[in-house]
Design brief:
CATH architecture of the largest domain: 3-Layer(aba) Sandwich
Largest sheet: 11 strands, mixed
Number of helices: 18
CATH class of the largest domain: Alpha Beta
Function: Part of a binding-protein-dependent transport system for a sugar.
InterPro entries: Bact_solute-bd_prot1, SBP
Radius of gyration: 22 Å
Organism: Saccharopolyspora rosea
Keywords: Signal, Transport
Order of helices and strands: HEHEHEHHHEHHEEHHHEHEEHHEHHEHH
Number of domains: 2
Protein name: Probable sugar-binding periplasmic protein
Distance between the termini: 30 Å
CATH superfamily of the largest domain: Periplasmic binding protein-like II
Structural class: alpha/beta
Helix content: 40-55%
Strand content: 5-15%
Length: 439
């Protein structure tokens, strides 16, 4: 699973990277090891336990192909730890990150090397990757990372709940989503929520502005790179739709209901326990359900889109695990061989995708018959293969823009923003000011 589970790591890396001194990219990439030359490559990744075991098995396959390159794998290494190692002059040769939102800083500061010289030297075909993943692995034209795996988000729905309510198809528009949510909601005798058809609170479970925004066509920035919340009508429509559904439940009742839900990544997940009938979530949820709630009857579909934007149906937010070579890597030539293997080799990507329950990030691997294809999982493969796929937004200051948007959403949904238009203008000013300071 990729990142986006919390803000602490992103904020920490923002501080650390801002103090890195940008390096001058080496236009002459280091050559691969000579025949018979023994080299050790260190790999730092955020994976732990079972997930680290999946990665290590694929690294063993790389070593079998390149017996002169020994790979040392270090798990539990988030962006902050890796950045501290770079600053301390002891970087890994290969870095794997689950938080591509930090890539703007990592590229801009030179903390991760520009891979352009390697890509050009070895004539790597970037057309092998979908457009969206190419967008979130570069910043301002510098490609300091390649995609390794992806998360794609869609709609999960409880088919038993649908059958009880006499509903025979998933909603396709946001109006249908709201009406379906109301029909599926069950209240206790005291008026409290027993089952929510859909939870319209952002910052809850997998509800986040970046997961919702593509379905209203809302853009984070304009052509000049300025924050566009007040100027893009999609944001106003999204927030007004949200407020209408919040008002149906009552903000106080929703607050109490959400407080009693299980953690997003635990066996007590609200959708898995039947407390929520519809939810936005990533493809990895299918693996959690198979392991933790195998008797749950459910299906998946693209998330509904704004009523006036039927052309967007089939879009989905995508983010992913990225891989690169830190500044100062001791064995950059050998590191590039491993980076290229983990990002472009079909066998490696199929093994990683199936093992980690993430979507492979090349078209060839995505369409490989060995990729697991349950009916529920196929939805996310189709979303990822769509030209409507929407990448995580680029940012020069890590996740600060996203955090500001989510903080605003929390204030708005609980009635603490009396004027939506003014609030969005102030949000733009806050984000743009932070960009100027960070840049």
């Amino acid at each position: 699973m990729t990142g986006w589970r919390g803000w602490a790591a992103g904020i920490a890396v923002a501080v650390a990277v801002s103090s890195c001194t940008a390096g001058t990219p080496d236009e002459r990439p280091q050559p691969p090891p000579a025949p018979g030359e023994k080299v050790t490559v260190t790999v730092s990744s955020p994976f732990t336990d079972r997930e680290l075991g999946v990665l290590d098995r694929v690294l063993d396959q790389f070593h079998a192909r390149h017996p002169d390159i020994t790979v040392v794998s270090r798990g539990s290494q988030d962006d902050d730890k890796i950045t501290q190692a770079i600053r301390g002059g002891n970087p890994p040769d290969v870095a794997i990150s689950a938080d591509p939102i930090n890539l703007g800083e990592l590229c801009d500061s030179g903390a991760w090397q520009d891979l352009g010289p390697y890509l050009r030297r070895d004539r790597v075909d970037l057309g092998a990757f979908p457009r969206a993943v190419l967008e979130y692995t570069q910043y301002r034209g510098e490609r300091c990372a390649l995609p390794m795996l992806a998360d794609v988000y869609g709609l999960y729905y409880n088919t038993d709940a649908f059958a009880r309510a006499g509903i025979d198809h998933p909603p396709r528009t946001t109006s249908e989503l709201a009406e379906t949510a109301k029909r599926l909601t069950e209240f206790n005798p005291d008026g409290s929520i027993r089952v929510a058809g859909f939870v319209p609170f952002l910052a809850t479970q997998a509800n986040h502005p970046w997961n919702w925004a593509p379905h209203w066509g809302a853009r984070w920035t304009d052509a000049q790179g300025r924050s566009a919340f007040a100027r893009d009508p999609g944001w106003r429509e999204m927030f007004r739709w949200q407020r209408d559904l919040v008002d149906f439940y009552g903000a106080d009742r929703l607050t109490r209901f959400v407080a009693g839900l299980g953690q997003q990544y635990s066996a007590d997940n609200a959708f898995q326990r039947g407390r929520v009938a519809m939810a936005v979530d990533g493809e990895y949820r299918t693996g959690f359900i198979a392991d933790q709630a195998p008797r749950l009857h459910y299906a998946t579909a693209p998330f509904p889109v704004a009523d006036d934007r039927p052309d967007l149906y089939g879009t989905g937010f995508a983010t992913g695990t990225v891989i690169g070579i830190p500044r100062g890597a001791e064995n950059a030539g050998a590191a590039w061989e491993l980076v290229r293997y983990l990002s472009t080799d079909t066998d490696a990507l199929v093994a990683l995708g199936n093992g980690l329950e993430n979507v492979p990030t090349t078209t060839a691997a995505l369409r490989d018959p060995r990729v697991a294809r349950t009916p529920q999982y196929r939805t996310f493969l189709d979303l990822f293969d769509s030209p409507r796929l929407t990448p995580s937004p680029p940012s020069p200051n890590g996740d600060a823009s996203l955090k500001a948007a989510e903080d605003f959403a929390v204030r708005w949904q609980t009635g603490r923003v009396p004027d939506l238009g003014r609030g969005l203008r102030e949000l733009d000013e806050q984000i743009d000011a932070a960009k100027r300071v960070g840049g």
